[in-house]
Structure formats: C-alpha cells, structure tokens
Automatic annotation (TrEMBL):
Domain (IrrE N-terminal-like) ranges: 57-157
One Pfam match: Peptidase_M78
Protein name: IrrE N-terminal-like domain-containing protein
PANTHER family noted in UniProt: ANTITOXIN HIGA1, BLL7220 PROTEIN
Taxonomic superkingdom: Bacteria
Originating organism: Paraglaciecola agarilytica NO2
Length: 268
C-alpha cells in the first residue's frame, strides 16, 4: 500500500466522517471504537501492543506501562494492521517492530507505522503547521505539543512530510552514526556520513563539548561530492538522550540539491 493511499484514506475518514479540523479533535481510541476495535490497557512483557481480530471486530491491547504518546502510537499502529487486514489479524508488536522493523515483517510493520503516523499527525493538518517554518528544534517541540506525539515520531513525521529539503541524523558519543531519515528527494551524496563530519555543529557538540546553537555551516560538510562548494546549509545539533546526539540538517537554499539531481538524470 502506498503512502498516498494511506493519506487519502485517513483524510476521507477524518474530514468526511469525523469532520476533524484541529489536532485536539483527534481521539485515537474513539476512532478505533468507530472502526469496531476496542482498546484495553494491560501490563505487557516483550511487546508494546497486540491486536486480536475476529470477523469485523477487534481488541487492541496496549502496554499500560508506556507513556501516553507511546500508547497513542501503539493504538494507531495496530489500527494500521486492522485497516489493512481486517478480519484476519492477530499480532504482537514490539517496540523494535514499530521503530525499526526488519526481516520478513518489515513491509507489514512499515505500513502499520505509516498508518499510525498519518492517524496521529494527518498531512492536511501538519501542512498548515509547517507553513513558513524552519527545520529546527523549536519546530519539533511545537508539532510534538500540538499533536501529543513522542519526539522521535514527531521528528520522523516532519522530515517525511518532505516540506523541508534535508534530513535528521543521530550520532553516538563515539562519533558513529546510529540512524537517519530524510526528505524523499534528497540525493545519496547528501546523506549523512557514517562518522560525524568535522566542521559540523554536531561535531563541535560531541567532540569538543561546545554547543553553538542553530545556524549555517559550510555546505561541503554535509555533502560527499562537490555539489555544495560555496554553499551553506542550516544545522541544529543537540543532545537527545544517553549517548545519542541529533542534528537537523536543512538545505534552505536547495540549489545544490537540484543541480545534483539534474546532473544525474542527464546521464542516466
């Protein structure tokens, strides 16, 4: 199932059936109930949520020990399974399934995650929130508060909206890359390096222990080839938790990106 199909489904559900025009009106448990899925909370060991479906009805159980944003995402994730496989679901979903699915279940879990993201932060409401925004921590905090979502889910949702040309990357204290996500059009030569790049704000934060706040750095710091010579890129680096540090990298001036894409298309 495509992202567009999920987006269209949720917009039809929210606009045509529920007339939702504000993030405060999104009651994920009420939406589940309208779809014949009741939500229960119980202590769960080894998984964040589970769904048992029979015919047109289902029961979603979420881990009572999780925080509110995690519970909401878990409900949305299981609803994703329900919308896609109504009448034939019986799933246990771990935290790893929801964050970084792998193996043969990867596609199913990614689809469920896409449903959860769209249900909790629908594109038509997010678009209004992103208009005129800068890709920085203030934006993440604002979206997180508005939609009552976790920081990481918010971060993924904003970057996946493709509103800002860029990416986020998490580096460990030892300088190794942990994970990243990006605008769908960002070319490979602009992907963050495996090691924290010297000259970046996140390098100053991790290696030198200096936080310089958001601002511009040389574009070639965040480009593996020569497309960003004489260009600048906006970067905001900060400590996330434990030994992990986040950098938000935004090509406010997208010219180097489009030059790279145009050149590669020319020779393909």
């Amino acid at each position: 199932m495509t992202i567009k199909a999920i987006k269209d489904f949720v917009e039809s559900l929210y606009i045509d059936e529920f007339a939702i025009s504000d993030a405060k009106e999104i009651d994920i448990e009420a939406i589940a109930f309208e779809q014949q899925a009741i939500v229960l909370e119980k202590p769960l060991n080894g998984c964040e949520a589970m769904i048992i479906g029979a015919g047109d009805r289902a029961t979603i159980t979420v881990n009572s020990g999780s925080d509110a944003p995690r519970k909401r995402f878990s409900v949305g994730h299981e609803l994703g399974h329900w919308f896609k496989d109504r009448g034939k679901v019986g799933n246990l979903c771990t935290h790893k399934d929801m964050e970084n699915p792998s193996g043969i279940s990867r596609n199913r879990e990614n689809v469920a995650n896409s449903y959860a993201s769209e249900l909790l932060v629908p594109s038509y409401l997010l678009k209004e929130h992103l208009t005129g925004s800068r890709f920085n921590l203030d934006l993440m905090s604002s979206v997180k508060t508005t939609f009552d979502t976790s920081f990481m889910m918010t971060l993924r949702r904003v970057v996946k909206s493709d509103h800002h040309m860029g990416c986020f990357v998490i580096y460990r204290k030892d300088g190794s890359r942990y994970l990243f996500d990006k605008n769908s059009q960002l070319p490979g030569c602009f992907y963050p390096r495996d090691r924290v790049p010297e000259g970046s704000k996140i390098y100053d934060l991790i290696v030198n222990g200096v936080s310089t706040g958001p601002g511009e750095v040389d574009g070639n710091v965040w480009c593996r080839e020569g497309w960003a010579d004489d260009a600048t890129v906006y970067e905001h680096a900060f400590h996330y938790h434990d030994d992990q540090f986040v950098s938000l990298v935004w090509w406010e001036d997208e010219e180097p990106i489009w030059q790279c894409i145009s050149s590669k298309e020319k020779y393909d």
